[in-house]
Amino acid sequence: MTSAQEGRTPVRARRPAGAPTSRTPFVLLMVLLLGGGLLGLLLLNTALNQGSFEQSRLKKQNSRLSDEEQALRRELDAVSAPGELARQAEQLGMVPGTNPVFIDPVTGQVLGTPKPASPRPTPTQPAATVPVAPTPVPGTTPAPTTPPAAAGATTAPAGR
Asked: Pro residues: which segments have biased composition (predicted)?
């Protein structure tokens, strides 16, 4: 070796411009990018499906609660109907007021004559109803009425 070459550090040999290069790092990078992208899509899809299931569950719960609300509203309407309130008040011993009195909020004057409510009379046995014969219409003949046959009675032929 020459003295000029001894003082130099060895230099790597350069590849010629047309020589093939190793593609392993590039392929590995592409595989990692594609794998990461697919994994990201899988996680995103899973999250969306989970949200869809949650949405479906909440819609069912909303529907069930809406039905329950409607049932409660119907029950409230039935209980708060005027006839039902009157029946419940009567069961509690309350009687309807007969003579209302009003107070003028400006002057404080009582308008009307206050009277205490009187208790309802206890119901008595209804009187026996008497059948009423229909009144005939002028110009028509009333239909003949026959008394109902007694149970077990037989009718005999007429004229014998």
From this structure: 133-147
110 beta partners: 103
Q: Which two tokens stand for residue 145?
A: 């009425």
Cα dihedral: 70, 76, 79, 80 (round 10): -130
Domain boundaries, the chain: 60-91
pLDDT, tens digit, 9 for 90 and up, residues 28-70: 999 999 999 999 999 999 999 999 999 999 999 999 999 999 9
DSSP per-residue string spanning 3-49: HHHHTSPP-PPPPPTTS----HHHHHHHHHHHHHHHHHHHHHHHHHH
What whole-number distance in Å separates Cα of residue 36 and Cα of residue 75? 58
What pLDDT, in 10s, does the model give residues 70-114?
A: 999 999 999 999 999 989 998 998 888 778 889 999 999 999 888
Buried b (16+ CB within 10 A) or exposed e, 59-76: eeeeeeeeeeeeeeeeee
Q: In the block, which residue shows the tokens 């309807």?
A: 96
Model pLDDT, residue 10: 66
Rounded Cα distance, 107 and 47, in Å = 70
**CB-based contacts of 83: which residues, under 8 Å, 6+ apart?**
none
